[in-house]
Give the backbone structure.
Amino acid sequence: MEDIRRPDGMERITTPELADAFIAEQIKALQAQVGERKVLLALSGGVDSSVVAALLIKAIGKQLVCVHVNHGLLRKGEPEQVIEVFRNQMDANLIYVDATDRFLDLLAGVSDPEEKRHIIGEEFINVFADEARKLEGVDFLAQGTIWPDILESENGIKAHHNAGGLPEDIADRFELVEPVRILFKDEVRMVGKQLGLPENMVERQPFPGPGLGVRCPGAITRERLEAVRESDAILREEFAKNGLEGKVWQYFTVVPDFKSTGIKDGKRTFDWPCIIRAINTTDVMEVTAEHLPAELIDHLVKRITTEVPGINRVLYDYTPKPPATVEYE
Ligand code: XMP
């Protein structure tokens, strides 16, 4: 992938100066393309959409309308960070939609992994389309498409996530704006840093679209989902404290849908286990488990079993891919 020339044969962005030059060029191009009109963006808080938002805010300010949909399956603190960074610090025009109940009601009792993914994906589009229909005079839809997405869709590996998923009445209304489409991921991160986005936002680990939903296997309940969210927050905090953030490719917790017997304060408990997964990879096709220091595992066991309601046991998943996948669903 490294050797493929991008459309304009551009130089690889490897320094802050080159990132600054890209930003200046893009701002001019975006201003010329958009003029006085408005742009809509689904802002998830992931690296690509955040960088697109920051670029557009610099270029056209409040003519950008960001919609952040909280499907209730985000990690602890994520929606708050999106609001803090974009609305409070960057003064963006941000619509925040808390659609937690809408998603969790639809997902109640659904245990099939593919059906869960389908419901989450479809409802995301419904919520975003509902917001888009309420807006008047918006001519453009911005997207965080990056260069590997283009290569993969050209090679037939996966369809690139363009406006294709949107209902026709919405998709037909918009012209696409894709300001980072010629960048590789490391370049997007460098541009994000130069745009002033927080380090933990531009360097963050991959997070699947269906979010914590795939880490709460089987039918999602609010209680078990909270146990996933709280244990994930503890894991991330400990990785950061121990200098592992940015060194381990991906790490998270899973709370499976079975209970086992335990003991707390002299009384019998019957609670869920929490599984820790920490992996390294270069291409995601093959993955190895990270071997965490024993003291850190001991500390995580202690914190998770004492601080997370409903957990009485911690397990550590050592399985590579193959035979296991990274996520549990
Ligand atoms: P698997 O479980 O397939 O995961 O070994 C490989 C990588 O892909 C991420 N992943 C997803 N990312 N939408 C995404 O955007 C998804 O539906 C999805 N499923 C898995 C996973 O977190 C891992 O990094």
